[in-house]
Write a structure and sequence with these properties.
It contains 20 helices and 18 strands. The protein has helices at about 10-25, 35-45, 60-70, 85-95, 105-120, 125-135, 155-170, 185-195, 215-220, 240, 260-270, 295-300, 305-315, 330-345, 355-360, 370-380, 395-400, 430-450, 455-460, 465-475; strands spanning about 5, 25-30, 50, 75-80, 100, 175-180, 205-210, 225, 235, 245-250, 270-275, 280-285, 285-290, 315-320, 350, 385-390, 405, 410-415. About 45% of the residues lie in helices and about 15% in strands. The chain is α/β, with parallel strands linked by helices.
């Protein structure tokens, strides 16, 4: 039995929690003001305080600071109407044990109380930092380049902030929404959260919701019994069953159909699932991490995503910065992918020319890390020297400065021509024409660098001599 104090200026919440928790055997007191709550803490010893984030007289974080002074051993959890990274970071940095989101779910409150009674008086934030420090000491997460294929962490501010958020949320059991552009490494972040959690020895299951068809999504997620539908020749475990006890990662969650979202909501609320064609429910314990490259709150406003499901998932949010905003870490990632490609292709290229490095830092990387890895693999395949040269980089990357993808249109516009003369911004340009111009420039440069030795130029360009002759003729190169 726990002695609990509820501080909330909503009388209904106070009465609801008092009745519910008292029936569960806990000793509960309630108050509707921060000042009276602090007076109760001065007079009594509480195991746990459930305090609203915004009160009329004192805000939750300020009450937290006073409680720490009056009764350091008392744990405090914040009640908030809307959870986000800022709230979580703020209250946990100040020593909060945890936080819960309105509307309150009975099982979550009971779970919170159980954890509070079992856990030593140490803030979740401090635990997360400790876990992070231990992992760093063991080099499980390291900013150093590795050739093992695991995700690496940069040294820049954006990378450090990202790792800090991951370390903060990983030891908890929060559901997490990861926002980020395609190819930014959302699955790797989800896997890292799993590996830093108490579930690390249990399964991690990743699902691309965009690849699930409407007809088969239910079977894939919940499983099915034999004969449930045409083609169901045997029973099948769903992905949630396979992830039981561990973590499931739902990538591009916004692609799920409405009926699947309904089933997912039931699973999240009741922590039970029923296979398609089944008659029995099965209890399931899975931490859910979802990812999206679109804002789910905007998807809710458009009617594409269920609002209640969004708030169930939105216990913690991580925004993954795109590669173009990672500064000096761009080349750290490039070196990492080069090592991986060297192993795969059995080569020993040591690095990148200064020209390539400069290009990589300036390039927009619309496909982020996934695009970088593919480009480096392709460029390494065309390289024979100690460094990857600019001639091995795809023309569309080298001459990307010529293109302008405007946010308000799907049209492609050229910003400058091969002579660096300004071109009218409103004149649409044929993509094949731009590619041909880029190819001609690359051939001219290769010929110049090799003193017009066509055999050497062809080798540098990764083509045979006959193909080079044909292209010289095609582009009318003197």
């Amino acid at each position: 039995m726990a002695k609990i104090l509820v501080i909330d200026d909503n009388l209904d919440i106070c009465n609801l929690l008092k009745r519910f928790l008292s029936k569960k055997g806990h000793d509960v007191e309630t108050t509707m003001s921060g000042e009276s709550g602090l007076d109760l803490v001065r007079k009594n010893k509480f195991d746990l305080i459930l305090c609203d984030f915004k009160l009329r007289d004192i805000e939750g974080p300020d009450i937290l600071q006073e409680v720490k002074k009056i009764s350091p051993e008392t744990k405090l959890a914040i009640i908030t109407g809307y959870s986000d990274v800022r709230v979580a970071v703020e209250v946990m940095k100040k020593g909060a044990f945890d936080y819960v989101v309105k509307p309150l779910i009975p099982d979550e409150i009971l779970s919170l109380i159980d954890r509070a009674m079992e856990t030593p008086s140490q803030p979740v934030y401090d635990q997360a930092e400790k876990v992070s420090d231990e992992k760093n000491q063991k080099k499980a997460i390291s900013p150093n380049v590795k050739s093992s294929g695991e995700y690496i962490w940069g040294k820049g501010t954006a990378s450090k902030n990202l790792l800090k958020e991951i370390s903060l949320v990983a030891p908890t059991n929060f559901s997490v929404i990861i926002y980020g552009e395609s190819g930014a490494g959302k699955e790797n972040i989800a896997r890292t959260i799993h590996n830093l959690s108490e579930r690390k020895d249990m399964p991690f299951v990743a699902i691309d919701c965009g690849a699930l068809t409407r007809d088969l999504a239910g079977s894939e997620l919940w499983g099915h019994e034999k004969g449930a539908f045409t083609g169901a020749l045997s029973s099948k475990e769903g992905q949630f069953e396979l992830a039981d006890g561990g973590t499931i990662f739902l990538d591009e969650i916004g692609n799920l159909s409405y009926d699947i979202q309904v089933g997912l909501l039931r699973l999240v609320q009741e922590k039970k699932l029923r296979r398609i064609g089944g008659v029995k429910d099965k209890s399931i314990d899975v931490r859910i991490i979802v990812a999206s490259n679109e804002n789910l709150k905007e998807a809710v406003a458009k009617g594409k995503f269920r609002e209640d499901l969004f708030y169930r998932f939105n216990e913690f949010t991580i925004n993954v910065p795109p590669l173009r905003k990672r500064g000096k870490d761009i080349m750290l990632f490039a070196e990492h992918f080069l090592q991986l490609a060297n192993i795969e292709l059995k080569k020993e290229v040591k690095g990148f020319s200064h020209e390539v490095a400069e290009l990589f830092v300036k390039y927009e990387w619309p496909g982020n890390l996934r695009e970088m890895r593919n480009i480096i693999r392709r460029s390494l395949l065309l390289s024979d020297g100690e460094e990857i040269q600019i001639t091995a980089i795809p023309h569309e990357i080298v001459h990307a400065h010529k293109f302008d993808f405007r946010e308000d249109t799907n049209s492609l516009y050229v910003t400058e021509n091969s002579s660096n003369e300004t071109v009218a911004a409103d004149d649409p340009v044929d993509l094949k024409l731009i590619a041909a111009q880029a190819e001609a420039e690359a051939i001219k440069k290769a010929l110049l660098e090799n003193q017009y030795n066509k055999t050497k130029a062809a080798k540098q360009l990764g083509i045979d001599r006959k193909t080079l002759f044909n292209k010289i003729k095609l582009h009318n190169i003197a």
